[in-house]
Amino acid sequence: xxxxxxxxxxxxxxxxxxxxxxxxxxxxxxxxxxxxxxxxxxxxxxxxxxxxxxxxxxxxxxxxxxxxxxxxxxxxxxxxxxxxxxxxxxxxxxxxxxxxxxxxxxxxxxxxxxxxxxxxxxxxxxxxxxxxxxxxxxxxxxxxxxxxxxxxxxxxxxxxxxxxxxxxxxxxxxxxxxxxxxxxxxxxxxxxxxxxxxxxxxxxxxxxxxxxxxxxxxxxxxxxxxxxxxxxxxxxxxxxxxxxxxxxxxxxxxxxxxxxxxxxxxxxxxxxxxxxxxxxxxxxxxxxxxxxxxxxxxxxxxxxxxxxxxxxxxxxxxxxxxxxxxxxxxxxxxxxxxxxxxxxxxxxxxxxxxxxxxxxxxxxxxxxxxxxxxxxxxxxxxxxxxxxxxxxxxxxxxxxxxxxxxxxxxxxxxxxxxxxxxxxxxxxxxxxxxxxxxxxxxxxxxxxxxxxxxxxxxxxxxxxxxxxxxxxxxxxxxxxxxxxxxxxxxxxxxxxxxxxxxxxxxxxxxxxxxxxxxxxxxxxxxxxxxxxxxxxxxxxxxxxxxxxxxxxxxxxxxxxxxxxxxxxxxxxxxxxxxxxxxxxxxxxxxxxxxxxxxx
Amino acid sequence: xxxxxxxxxxxxxxxxxxxxxxxxxxxxxxxxxxxxxxxxxxxxxxxxxxxxxxxxxxxxxxxxxxxxxxxxxxxxxxxxxxxxxxxxxxxxxxxxxxxxxxxxxxxxxxxxxxxxxxxxxxxxxxxxxxxxxxxxxxxxxxxxxxxxxxxxxxxxxxxxxxxxxxxxxxxxxxxxxxxxxxxxxxxxxxxxxxxxxx
Lengths: 599, 198
What we know:
Chain A is mainly β. In chain A, 4% of the residues lie in helices and 35% in strands.
């Protein structure tokens, strides 16, 4: 492989002077006419107060306009709308378009970075990208090759650029960044290449680095202090090293490619870390802290306030990177600042986001079987730990042994596709996978920049169910219960949107945009877009009219397994429904489809 | 055994040129194994023969591995339905190293070709060359890059296994899913594996 240029001193063209916070970003998020962040707001609720489109009229929805991105690979994330301008991104080569909503979507500017195509094969699972971010008059694009560029939102001119990682050792990016005050918070991908995950804060004025926090390693790398806790107890010295054998932590994974949320009052950021490397648990004895961990860090310094490791010593690739949704709800009569997280491992977690106390941990897919439950007894030595079922333990079954019938599969009961929360219904709307797997770990050797996996997987729809590979569910986070569940033929790989119109939108892999009743899940509208949907639904208003927009363009994880259809080696012939190949329903193509009510 | 040293030498040249002496020891061992396999490719490539040689049928076996008449690695299904160990090993290694781009069981994905087809359509030596050295197809409409695996022991030590597995998939000799019955791992294979991974 060609060596990538290391742009060590790439703090080019710095025009801005002093670092200034952007006091307007929160107020812009509060304005439902705009969609200024990939996650809708800092709380990751993906909720809009717009109600022009509502449950009574959504059935009349029509396509208002469309836009082809010119790129064929998997399209994740969504556009942003800032004032009169819509910003649309693409997968590799990571083009950004600025479209003028006041002039029928005319292209104001287009930015296409030059990236070494050798980054493509070091990206796990397609060259997806989850979108640009905005603050302080700048659009931030974190490219596949980990170059972050700040573009002038008006002209598209490069204000500064900085390199966050090295694709030559498997460090890549698929995620958006989160602007917080005078910084942007930036993650990294590469858990399947033995990358040691980290989160880095860069100053938005000039791209200089403010702090970096690794997921594992010495205390000065993982930014902990005497006050950092895990389930109410201090994490103690060397917590990022003493649950690893030898130097394995140096290639320990725990990458940070998910979504980030921010609580301004607490000045804390929240995110999750991914799987430990390798997928062969036998090669990395110990709890492998702090992989698979919900992290709460100070936004200014990066110092951790609390951790919660959901899946100690992962044996199934249940990355913990899914979004942390922040809400204020009453639990047992007490008003709480809550963090809700739907993990790949199939458990929906509710925590107090100030203290890190674990309040609820329940399965959000009844088929989850790798653990019986999470121990909630604070007096128990097992407190907070999942109780692993020996039969489904790929560690206990050992190397070169095929463990069968594990639910969920490695892609999780839910992957990165973000859920939505409606403060009106106090329910979470969760896109899920209904897929199980066989998993056989074996020994692998590490070579920098090469895949470092070490397991063979076979995936298939959950047995003794509806035969499909997905569900779209409504979840009560206070009690940890499914309120309703809509079966889907394929995994739901699209981010949801809830609105004040008492409706919830999501996309399907066949390409449908669907609207359902927020209280019952009843389907109210569907339209088949040009390609399968793995993007996230967003909404905005322009000229007094509400629009709903979705990127279609099948690919990503879904494009790997589902393109050819899944098989169940344990079933005979005659299996129904869910075994269909996605390629019978849709083909590649990057398109934005924008919907509105008829005039 | 070695019918065509020249073709093999060409492959060796390209490997060494690409990696400029990195991991020489490891590659040396790999190549020793490859040379042992030998080649009947030149005659075919030159187009002097009218008949395409049978690239599927196993003509003989050695130490648990199977080869065509032209000494190209291939799979074998015994009368009792057992598949050869290398094909089984290839199933495992394929799903560790190739699956995330090329889809389950060589079926292809939304962005990478179905290797069960490539393994049939493509000459063995071309197949090896692309795995070792990689390939780029980048244009306005295509961004397809196969990385170089020449320095990756998890691939190189099992390259023939992956190849024969994919050939078996391409001819439907092995159905999708995990192969059920297999020959045991031979001592010769175990030894070669240990040496290769060191």
